[in-house]
Amino acid sequence: MPEISEETKNLVAQFQIYQQQLQNVMVQKENMKMQLMEMERALEELEKTKQTAAYKITGNIMISKPVVDLKKELTETKEDIDVRVKSSEKTEERLTAKLKELQEKLKEFIK
Q1: What CATH number is given to the structural domain containing 47?
Q2: pLDDT tens-digit map of 18-29
Q3: Domain limits for position 64
Q4: pLDDT band at residue 2, thresholds of 50, 70 and 90?
Q5: Is residue 52 part of a domain?
Q6: pTM to 2 decimal places
Q7: What residues contact 99, with CB distance under 8 A and at least 6 apart?
Q8: Where does residue 85 fall: left (phi above 0), alpha (psi -120 to 50 degrees), or beta otherwise?
Q9: Is the pLDDT of residue 82 over 90?
Q10: For the stretch 27-54, what's the b/e string if a residue is b when 16 or more beta carbons lie within 10 angstroms of its beta carbon?
């Protein structure tokens, strides 16, 4: 069995690190997408209600807030998460490209 060069070992280690980073980014992105869905459902419910106040969970308590304020808060938070999801997607693309690049280099070393 041929000896594996130090450079090949480094490439494999880098590849594994990028794989782990990609997996972490994908998990975070999915969590954010779940949060977005929950916010969209909450906004839909707030749109349907004829109430002027609703409850918001803050820590271990529920507080009453005007529906208008809750809609504004949810919309702002939703926009923030949208930006973070887009950022995660760009990071995911960069990591995927780097993985493909490393994979090609590793193929050359294996030949």
Answers
A1: 1.10.287.370
A2: 999 999 999 999
A3: 6-110
A4: low
A5: yes
A6: 0.82
A7: 15, 18, 19, 22
A8: alpha
A9: yes
A10: eebeebeeebeebeebeeebeeeeeeeb
